[in-house]
Fold each of these.
Amino acid sequence: MKQIFLCAINNILSGTCKEDCKFCTQSVRYHADIERYSYKAIDQIVSEAKEARANGALGYCLVTAGKGLDDKKTDFVARTAQAIKAEVEGLNLIACNGTANKEQLRYLKEHGIDSYNHNLETSERYYPQICQTHRWDERYETCENVRSVGLALCSGGIFGMGETAQDRDDLLKAIASLSPESTPLNFYHPNPALPIKTRNIEQDEALEIIQKAHRLLGKERLLMVAGGRELLFSSDERKMFEAGANAIVIGNYLTTSGEAPDKDRQMLEALGYEVAVSCGTD
Ligand code: SF4
């Protein structure tokens, strides 16, 4: 029986970013109507991590808005990771804190982080159309830093932001060149405040992307349908699992709501899938 890996996200510092990524409601430039706050209390994060574990999550991602790590953020994520590891068993802890150098990543690893998420977002060619405040090659370099310090790498992208079919193929190839242990595939969720107004992807194209990613990355890797799942696959989740996805995000996304975890577990059961209880895939 195929097992599905569940991952949950905690936005531990929200909506305070000065970068200009045109798909991101957390940029202060676009004044999207989202909740914005500085560092969450560590006790609260630990309690939310316990809840996610009780809901079946094996992956737990600590996300901070902003271009990348600085000393304060690195220290906060490290202390949070230590606190979670001390109280919650069986979670694979993922940090997602933007651009990072090797020293910062080593520090996070020493304090309990298992994996680092940094998405390439789109192809190198299309990237300047969606972000002008930093470069695609900086993103690629952070992913290489993750590999070189021995953290597991989680890297994927967002589809449906106006890119071409060639851009999609190029992004998947670039991701595969990094051999990530896990890859989140996000499908763009339009927001009226953002410069990218519409989503240029339909379910059949999304399925093609999942199939291609599955072939390129290998079936032993985690291939996760993340943001936008509810927009493209609501009541049609079987198709994405049959195309090769073996992981989903449960609970809420960074700034948008997801399904209730109970509903997702019922959906998996109804489709005949099991919730994975360890980090390997079948
Ligand atoms: S750097 Fe990250 S948080 Fe900031 S706007 Fe870009 S995607 Fe959003």
Amino acid sequence: MLGLLSYTMHMRTFHFGQAGFEGFLAKEAGACLEKGPGWVLSSARHVDLCFAHLSFMDPVELRGSAVNALAGALADYFFETSKDLRYDAVWPLCFESAASQGLSARRQSVEAAFREKTGRMARVMRLAEPGRPGLGPAQGLFVYLADFGRAFACRDAWGGGQRRMSDDPQAPSRSYLKVEEAYAVLRESPQAGETVVDLGAAPGGWSYSAAKRGAEVLAVDNGPLKGAAKDNPLIRHAQEDAFKFQPAGRADWLFCDIIAPPERSLELLLRWVENGWCRKFVVNLKFGRTDPFPLLRRVEAELAPRCTVLRPRHLYHDREELTVPGIARIA
Ligand SMILES: C[S@@+](CC[C@H](N)C(=O)[O-])C[C@H]1O[C@@H](n2cnc3c(N)ncnc32)[C@H](O)[C@@H]1O
């Protein structure tokens, strides 16, 4: 078994997000020591980042060229760091891997071997809940395979709230997954009887998501609603220009997923918040091939002071876009 000294803390933070976006993640995390597909090792301590799905606080780096060796090193780390911990409730056990080919199968083998090796802590392992923790700080065991023989691990992590959502075969678009994920980040979702204005609603994935929770939706889009959003008794369709649309009264929710320059969508959101036209919002900003940081700086400078909660995120289901869920400060 390895001694505690083997786990000397280097005050580093390891972040992972979506593969292909590690350049943005490195810029946001700052003080980048190393990066790979979807991950960044930094000597800075920032968390609550837009591009990070999970941040490992003071990770250790473990190596082992064979599955058994890597799983053994992980088990040793787990035993050693469990000595001062009490396990009297469910705790997160999270295994993730970089997007390189074959690494996901390797991760599954390492996790299975780790579970075998930790059999002597059966009571503790029965309390382990597999998967990512939710938003905010979490204690558990967090493992990321950066390569076939190299893993980062830690006991304290910070979750951005992003996660893969399960599809609903009735949802008229894949976009549905984004708004569902945004609720998890915001820790709020539309409730029965609430009102939602959905700008750029067609074919209706976001509207359907709100209506299936019992909210009343006004879906604004010149395009047609489809599938379970079309003729839905809780969804009214207005064929109008979303940028000119003004609500009759305050809506509980503003949704906006318009294909438009992201600055335009952000300005639209600012207008809604400044006018008190919505309390909560989920707005998608499609930055495409442009630099998202000027946009993020405007979100921070102009929107944040007007909100009680604001969590811009590059979601698991986002591509070249980011999603801004928040709650407006209502006077
Ligand atoms: C990505 S889709 C929205 C998908 C939708 N969130 C869903 O879940 O099905 C973008 C939509 O924005 C609409 N759109 C673009 N410009 C608009 C405008 N000025 N006013 C209203 N809708 C607009 C398009 O017609 C398109 O249906």
